[in-house]
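Below is how a single chain appears once it has passed through the pipeline. First comes the sequence as given, then the structure the pipeline wrote out for it. We keep one example in the README because the format questions we get most often are answered faster by looking than by reading.
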Amino acid sequence: MNPIPRGLYALTDSQITPEDRLVPAVAAAIAGGTVMVQYRDKGADDARRRWEAEDLSRLCRSLGVPLIINDDIALAEAVGAAGVHLGRDDGDIAEARTRLGAQAIIGASCYNDLQLAVRAAEAGADYVAFGSFHSSTVKPHAVRADVGLLHEARRRLRCPIVAIGGINADNGRSLIEAGADLLAVISAVFAQPDIQAAARRLANMF
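Resulting structure:
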């Protein structure tokens, strides 16, 4: 299993971090203590997604922070990202491992399903993600997970656990105490007027 840092996992969103702000926003988040970044863009403009991911890959590599690509094994491979994050219908963990290599970080969305997480870990996922733990403006209709799931996952799993969904500086600590190794955050970092300070508040919880 590849080593994954414990701490703040900042996820981009094209509605919050448009292309003219993307790189400086991520740089500010890293300066605030972000330990891992995910490029998350559901748009159909493949050319734009490619050059944005390339820019972020160069930035993150220069700063020693892993860049994970959301839902796109081919894009992760093309830009030399540190890894990929896969949802339920976004590709196979074994395929990602074959294409990206043994050192790649492969994460899996497991929603509120512990058995799905167990299967993902057995298939070789380096981390599993549960959520949404709180209401989220980015994914308002996401399934909800209970904090008790983190306690149970901590007992059952040996891989790092990510908590996601509506997390901010007011509610994140309880998720860490319940067993989350990383807090995956979008709005509470990138929608804030001072991204570096917002990231620092969350990173300091660890």
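The two ends are 22 Å apart (CA to CA).

See the next section for the split statistics.
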